[in-house]
Design a protein that fits this description.
alpha/beta, D-Maltodextrin-Binding Protein, domain 2, 2 domains, six-stranded mixed β-sheet, three-stranded parallel β-sheet, binds glutamic acid
Length: about 325
């Protein structure tokens, strides 16, 4: 503030006439610098390092284990509605609101509507359905924005009751947290500039490909046989900015997330086939088994109507029509 005020005082003291004289003198100097048709390079821009989103950089990814495991990951605990006293749901009800870890940077799934400032999207609708089942009011919810990498720590630390954030169910994650039944099945693909010839990850050998830290997507990029250079960021929107600035060649993650980016930036396109399967589940702390059953009962209900309503609102346009995936239980 004080800086702005100081400089405006200085401008005023220079005097309007003198300012005009200085500006026209500069114009004359500039005009004399180059002949028409020979543009002047005003600064050696190539030597300046481009600004990057916070924490963006080459990824060190542990690609061992996980993928080879088979733990029947998508079979969850059978549903059980109702809120017995002393249960996890009862404690949440006592508190007065559900705490849900969500994304605020993924268009269509969890994003901040710039005109209203509220969080919206398919995942936000799923989270609200859980609040509605506990309180009879979907508004009794507090959202915590978490990055891909913060999802599991937020659950294990007890900072959130649930995580609804494009989260793939897998054996590795099941060692630390629980998952609901599957509420959507996505698959990894690639987003590139509309003029790019890239079709597969193999076409990106030796080139920079962006994904968020802590995502399955980043591991899949790092595991590719003809190695791209995995670049990690905190938020998916950072990947889009980096691609727009030419700092990465491509983004590779779930087709759902890419569909949102392709809508945000129509000069991009999604290419190639799905090369993974990413079943989404609601993340729940390991010890809250009653909550897993309760959420599964909510999802049973949601599959009967709300799911379609939300899907058609957010996803049917970019992803085509779909029906809720059938639940599997242990
Ligand atoms: N579904 C993937 C995952 O859970 C990528 C999406 C994300 O990180 O937001 O890791």
């Amino acid at each position: 503030m004080s800086r702005g005020r100081a400089s405006s005082v200085r401008v005023r003291s220079v005097g309007v006439k003198r300012l005009v004289a200085v500006v026209s003198a500069l114009a004359v100097v500039a005009a004399g610098c180059g002949s028409p048709g020979a543009p002047v390079d005003p600064a050696p821009v190539g030597s300046v390092e481009q600004p990057k989103p916070a924490n963006a950089g080459p990824a060190q990814v542990d690609v061992e284990g996980a993928a080879a495991e088979d733990c029947n990951a998508t079979a969850s605990l059978p549903p059980q509605g109702g809120i017995p006293s002393g249960s996890t749901m009862d404690e949440i009800r006592e508190r007065g609101y559900l705490v849900a870890g969500v994304d605020q940077n993924t268009f269509l799934f969890g994003f901040r509507n710039p005109t209203t400032g509220t969080l919206e999207g398919f995942d936000i609708d799923m989270a609200k359905a859980v609040a509605k089942a506990i309180f009879g009011d979907p508004g009794k919810i507090r959202f915590r924005a978490v990055t891909s990498a913060q999802r599991i720590p937020a659950l294990t630390a007890g900072d959130v009751d649930i995580v609804v954030r494009t989260m793939t169910i897998n054996c590795e994650r099941l060692k630390e947290i629980n998952f609901s039944s599957v509420y959507y099945v996505a698959g990894q693909r690639i987003l590139v500039d509309e003029n790019s010839d890239v079709r597969t990850l193999a076409d990106l050998e030796g080139q920079k490909v962006c994904a968020s830290k802590g995502s399955t997507s980043l591991k899949n990029i790092a595991k590719a046989e003809r190695k791209p250079i995995p670049i990690q960021v905190d938020d998916w929107s950072d990947c889009l900015v980096m691609m727009q600035q030419g700092q990465v060649e491509a983004i590779s993650t779930d087709d759902t997330i890419l569909a949102g980016m392709a809508q945000q930036d129509p000069t991009t396109k999604i290419v190639g086939e799905r090369f993974t399967e990413e079943p989404y589940g609601i993340g729940i702390p390991k010890e809250d088994k009653d909550m897993v059953r309760f959420v599964n009962a909510v999802l049973e209900d949601v599959r009967g109507g709300e799911w379609q309503k939300s899907y058609d609102r957010w996803l049917a346009g970019p992803l085509g029509s779909a029906q809720p995936p059938a639940a599997k239980y242990k």
